[in-house]
């Protein structure tokens, strides 16, 4: 369907359009060979998209969340794996930009300037088997040493680790005074005591190369610790600077893959002269409806984030729940769209010569990404029933209302 866009949004999408054809052309090869799209990243850099969410005064394009989500959807329609990897860079920078505008924090300004100059690419390396992906705990340990900490442990789903020059990671520290804490740290991946293990051989999203990361005595200086959270707590700053940006970014990527599959399917129908078949019209209508629902949910979420209302008007737990909702509505709908379109595409849906088969596989990865359906439903149900799922750490710089459970 056609969309109402501002001139600024059109200009952002024009940058994505520059690189989309090349990404689409290479997608099958990277998927087949299980390789990271370094060539696609070079295209993103040349188009200026690696600076998309950096403030203009710090060398970027100053995109807000809604503009980022539109770009991610457009890129994902061409190549979901490249778009997902890119989201791991652009979304954190967008949240940092929003925080920097409010606080003027020098470390954030330095990082954003480096990104604006093209010298910084981010990756979030926080996922671990057996721990919740809400930044409430970690199995990776941080041991206190003079001047900093030593990290030991294993992370999985290290998306974008193949390209990133800085990682945001987590570790558990047994503080002798405060008790167990979750540290959020910035890690230099070129340092000693870090190994990327080639474990990524999956059904979908193969080109993200989301391999395991092993920390074995890696030193992180004190100044690289950006946050310390009591274990088992939902944190308002994590909501503001991580969850409320990553969740919709994942949603936009999987919406984009489904939208790309729909556009491809429509062309197949026209080539076969089947556009008057009422059963095909019905399936296409279902797919269109689901994708438009996703776009509406994403737009509402972006408006809540950019206005600050997600953090200030809702409690922390409800904020997490709203992030879960936007991500899971989008990924569930995307999976449903792909299943519905099988009725349209027919046998071609399983042909590896055609892009639909890869798109179908890539979309399945969205169902297991954080915040997953099970955790999301727990949050949403508990909020509706007035049940506290975990203690809350309120935001230290905002009104007390942001800390409501």
From TrEMBL:
Gene3D superfamilies found in the cross-reference section: Acyl-CoA dehydrogenase/oxidase, N-terminal domain, Butyryl-CoA Dehydrogenase, subunit A, domain 2, Butyryl-CoA Dehydrogenase, subunit A, domain 3
Write out the similarity annotation.
Answer: Belongs to the DszC flavin monooxygenase family.
Annotated Acyl-CoA dehydrogenase C-terminal domain residues = 250-366
Q: By what name is this protein known?
A: Dibenzothiophene monooxygenase
For whether the record's keyword set contains Oxidoreductase, the answer is yes
Q: Which GO terms describe its molecular function?
A: oxidoreductase activity
InterPro entries in alphabetical order:
Acyl-CoA_DH_C, Acyl-CoA_Oxase/DH_mid-dom, Acyl-CoA_Oxase/DH_mid-dom_sf, AcylCo_DH-like_C, AcylCoA_DH/ox_N, AcylCoA_DH/ox_N_sf, AcylCoA_DH/oxidase_NM_dom_sf
Source species: Nonomuraea bangladeshensis
Catalyses which reaction?
Answer: dibenzothiophene + FMNH2 + O2 = dibenzothiophene 5-oxide + FMN + H2O + H(+); dibenzothiophene + 2 FMNH2 + 2 O2 = dibenzothiophene 5,5-dioxide + 2 FMN + 2 H2O + 2 H(+); dibenzothiophene 5-oxide + FMNH2 + O2 = dibenzothiophene 5,5-dioxide + FMN + H2O + H(+)
Q: Which Pfam families match?
A: Acyl-CoA_dh_2, Acyl-CoA_dh_M, Acyl-CoA_dh_N
Taxonomy, superkingdom: Bacteria
Q: What is the lineage of its organism?
A: Bacteria, Bacillati, Actinomycetota, Actinomycetes, Streptosporangiales
Question: Where is this protein localized, as stated in its record?
Answer: Cytoplasm
The reply on keyword Nucleotide-binding is yes
Give the Enzyme Commission number.
1.14.14.21
Give the signal peptide, or none. Answer: none
* PANTHER family membership: ACYL-COA DEHYDROGENASE, ISOVALERYL-COA DEHYDROGENASE, MITOCHONDRIAL-RELATED
């Amino acid at each position: 369907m056609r969309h109402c866009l501002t001139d600024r949004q059109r200009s952002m999408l024009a940058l994505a359009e520059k690189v989309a054809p090349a990404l689409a052309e290479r997608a099958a090869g990277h998927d087949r060979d299980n390789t990271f799209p370094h060539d696609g990243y070079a295209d993103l850099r040349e188009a200026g998209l690696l600076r998309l969410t950096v403030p203009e005064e710090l060398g970027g394009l100053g995109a807000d969340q809604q503009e980022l989500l539109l770009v991610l959807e457009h890129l994902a329609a061409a190549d979901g794996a490249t778009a997902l990897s890119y989201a791991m860079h652009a979304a954190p920078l967008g949240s940092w930009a929003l925080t920097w505008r409010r606080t003027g924090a020098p470390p954030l300004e330095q990082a954003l300037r480096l990104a604006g100059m093209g010298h910084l690419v981010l990756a979030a390396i926080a996922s671990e088997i057996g721990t919740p992906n809400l930044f409430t705990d970690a199995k990776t340990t941080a041991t206190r040493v003079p001047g900093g900490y030593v990290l030991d442990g294993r992370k999985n789903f290290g998306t974008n680790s193949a390209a990133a020059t800085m990682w945001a990671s987590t570790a558990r520290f047994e503080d002798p005074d405060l008790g167990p804490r979750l540290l959020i740290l910035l890690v230099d991946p070129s340092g000693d005591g870090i190994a990327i293990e080639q474990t990524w051989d999956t059904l979908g999203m193969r080109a993200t190369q989301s391999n395991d990361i092993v920390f074995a005595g890696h030193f992180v200086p004190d100044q690289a610790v950006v946050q310390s959270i009591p274990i088992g707590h939902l944190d308002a700053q994590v909501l503001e600077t991580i969850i409320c940006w990553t969740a919709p970014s994942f949603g936009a990527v999987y919406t984009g893959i489904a939208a790309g599959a729909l556009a491809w399917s429509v062309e197949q129908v026209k080539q076969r002269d089947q556009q008057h078949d009422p059963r095909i019209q019905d399936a296409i209508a279902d797919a269109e409806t689901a994708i438009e629902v996703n776009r509406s949910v994403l737009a509402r979420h972006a408006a809540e984030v950019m206005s600050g209302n997600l953090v200030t008007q809702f409690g922390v737990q409800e904020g997490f729940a709203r992030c879960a909702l936007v991500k899971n509505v989008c990924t569930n709908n995307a999976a449903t769209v792909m299943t519905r379109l099988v009725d349209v595409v027919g046998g071609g849906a399983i042909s590896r010569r055609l892009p639909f088969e890869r798109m179908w596989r890539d979309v399945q990865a969205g169902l297991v990404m954080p915040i997953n359906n099970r955790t999301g439903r727990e949050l949403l149900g508990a909020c509706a029933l007035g049940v506290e799922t975990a203690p809350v750490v309120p935001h230290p710089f905002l009104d007390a209302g942001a800390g409501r459970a």
